[in-house]
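User: Predict the complex with tryptophan.
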Amino acid sequence: MDSASLTEQEISAAAELDEILNGLSRSQKSLSPKFFYDARGSKLFDAICELPEYYLTRTELSIMQMHIDEIATLVGPQASLIEFGSGSSLKTRMLLEKLDRLAAYVPVDISRDHLLSAAESLASDYPAVEVLPVLADFTQPFQLPNPSVMPLRNIVYFPGSTIGNFSPENAHSLLQVMHIEAGKDGALLIGVDLQKDTAIIERAYNDAAGVTAEFNLNMLSRINQEFGADFNLNRFQHSAIYNEEYGRVELNLISQCDQDVRIGGQSIHFDKGEALLTEHSHKYTLEQFCNMADRAGFAVHTVWTDSEQLFSIQYCLRV
Ligand code: TRP
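Assistant: Here is the predicted structure with tryptophan placed in the model:
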């Protein structure tokens, strides 16, 4: 078949299969975390955010609630709020409600469905705010839309400690993209999970109800469904270990036996005990994050944390 007869969807499915096979062919096997988020994965992720052990979401929200007035004062009037990723989350809603006469809300996401449904729901709940969704991969510089009201400044918003899911090197490049998009007088409002006692961190990713394990394993059932693989979910086990040296949680699926998995006409061998890496979640000290922000041209202006210093929200000025 020549490529002209393939639909765009078929081409991207073929590229994704290639990506999967590449990840499974390396000596350290890995799968991209983007494969977590099919419909079931997104539901499980929402459930993770409500788990008693998962302190991140709840703590970030309470820090926001405590300091929203101060945040609004720092941002000032008529800003454009540029969210990296699209959340119809409570935190985004708080900003849309409390920031003074927003010029626009600009969610940026690579997933069209997710972007448009979040944008629509916020546009209908906040009719006074111009919502201008941008379909783009935010790891690369992108063109900002022109709101009908001229923004006085851009505020880049990146909640959820999603920065932690990038390697420190990629996190630094992402901050550089944010620096470009923030523009003159711009600022960054970012949620960053902090280094802390290993037991607290490991509990958050090994919940008693097993939701995180289900979320992790769901990646295999999704790959079975969408790419015709034959992963046996009973033969892999969820693992989340905090690596103190690297300051990161390492999410893996551990092969419980010697086995071969078929995918895309290939056979992939797993040794008993072999790890398949699905995601990293980096935790920072305040000093480490400050240094990284600094190298990307941001000066940390205000840091808010909870009483136990579990999580931080940081307001950084573009310099
Ligand atoms: N960024 C958050 C974290 O690192 C949320 C998250 C992303 C997550 N991927 C995950 C949580 C995988 C659990 C498992 O914790």
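The chain has a mean pLDDT of 96.
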